[in-house]
Predict the 3D structure of the following.
Amino acid sequence: MAKRLLCIRYDGTRFHGWQVQPNGITVQETLQDAIERLTGTRADLTGCSRTDAGVHARRFYCTVEVPDTFTEQALCRSLNGVLPDDVAVLSSHTVPADFHPRYAARGKRYTYQIDNGIAPDPFLRQYAMHLRTPLDEQKLNETAQLFVGTHDFSAFCSSGSSVQDKVRTVTRSDVVRNGDTVLYTVEADGFLYNMVRIFVGTLLDVHAGRLTVEDVHAALSTGDRRFAGATAPAKGLFLDEVWYETSFD
């Protein structure tokens, strides 16, 4: 058997997130079905993250053990031949037996799309949050800089998280506009449950006057969820990239 690191991308619209669960189809289950179809064995898959229902990924990494008769290239071709159209395998790399795609990750980048046109764009309906009210991207960007640095992000984590250490280092947090699309990009050494979506909700709440910059400072200093904003819808969120010590491009 060979341990392979798969780089995949998927449209999360119809999935109930990455991880297998009893009440809905997931990306992990879909990949397991495809691998079982090829090998005859129900394989365990370990992912680099646990994306929520409706969240998309441009580059997501997971490990699986397969018969070593499947070369790296053949595994990609074979999986893409049996996977549904909303999941694709970009690459396959042989990794050591003790490689863990989550613990080995050095950092991640997420983007969040907001459709800011007067009328919603039908082609973005599953991939962006629509807001008709005009957004000032410069004001949003100024607020976004408050997240940069090493902080306890407890206020930006949804309840239900079992993670004890909520200190993370954010190295990039910015907002730009491209036509009617407003794009938020954030990079960090790790993320908490719903952290990016709460970042977006906070930015929008400050922009709308429901929160103040002082509230954001209070959220960062106290860890009190009440000082942070709402959780933005999942459909606008993309896992863009995961970085490892070794490049797997």
In short: The radius of gyration is 19 Å.
